[in-house]
């Protein structure tokens, strides 16, 4: 792993602001998450050095793409987001083509601007309500049945929520209209045409197909 000096100058969150805290965090990770960091970020299988552990908490973007992805960077699938909990310097998170069931562990990533969690098994977006800076949400090809958690996320510019069992677009409001220029909610087999018309005609938000 090549350490960027500019990134390495960033402060570390209080939960990991000493080597002892970071070491405790590392040893407390599940084996899958330790392996994920080693494979996709550190790019070696040895125990991370002190500066590498610190750097993990400083980086603004992180990418874990499972083996089913077009360009995977790890050979196995994750089942949760626990390894990223508390990593509040993150602005971009890519967790695609895994077996994630939820995103609740991401609730503390308050700087997050882009979240890619498409091609998983996510049933609920609960946990993202606090991510007020979120501008991009890619959550297509999941099992999500509600957009309620995005109700207050009015900085969103792009939402990809196609290929989910949505029956309503409740959660998308008139407050989204100003910024939301890319709302890709089609196709969704269970979504009634009248719901699409409601959002387009009453809210002025075009429902696009992807």
UniProtKB/TrEMBL annotation:
Keywords: Leucine-rich repeat, Repeat
Keyword Repeat found: yes
Record bears the keyword Repeat: yes
Coiled-coil portions: none
Name of the protein in question: Leucine-rich repeat domain-containing protein
Organism annotation: Rudanella paleaurantiibacter
């Amino acid at each position: 792993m090549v350490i960027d000096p500019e990134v390495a100058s960033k402060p570390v969150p209080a939960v990991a602001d000493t080597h002892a805290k970071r070491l405790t965090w590392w040893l407390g990770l599940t084996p899958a998450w330790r392996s994920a960091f080693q494979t996709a970020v550190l790019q070696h299988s040895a125990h991370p050095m002190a500066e590498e552990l610190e750097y993990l908490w400083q980086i603004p973007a992180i990418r874990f793409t499972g083996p089913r992805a077009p360009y995977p960077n790890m050979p196995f699938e994750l089942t949760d987001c626990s390894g990223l909990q508390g990593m509040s310097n993150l602005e971009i998170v890519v967790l695609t083509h895994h077996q994630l069931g939820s995103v609740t562990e991401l609730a503390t990533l308050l700087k997050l601007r882009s979240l890619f969690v498409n091609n998983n098994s996510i049933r609920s977006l609960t946990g993202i309500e606090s991510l007020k800076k979120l501008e991009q949400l890619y959550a297509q090809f999941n099992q999500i049945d509600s957009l309620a958690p995005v109700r207050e996320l009015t900085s969103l510019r792009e939402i990809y929520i196609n290929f989910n069992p949505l029956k309503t677009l409740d959660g998308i409001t008139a407050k989204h209209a100003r910024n939301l220029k890319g709302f890709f909610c089609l196709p969704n087999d269970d979504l009634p045409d009248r719901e699409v018309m409601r959002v387009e005609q009453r809210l002025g938000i075009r429902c696009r197909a992807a």
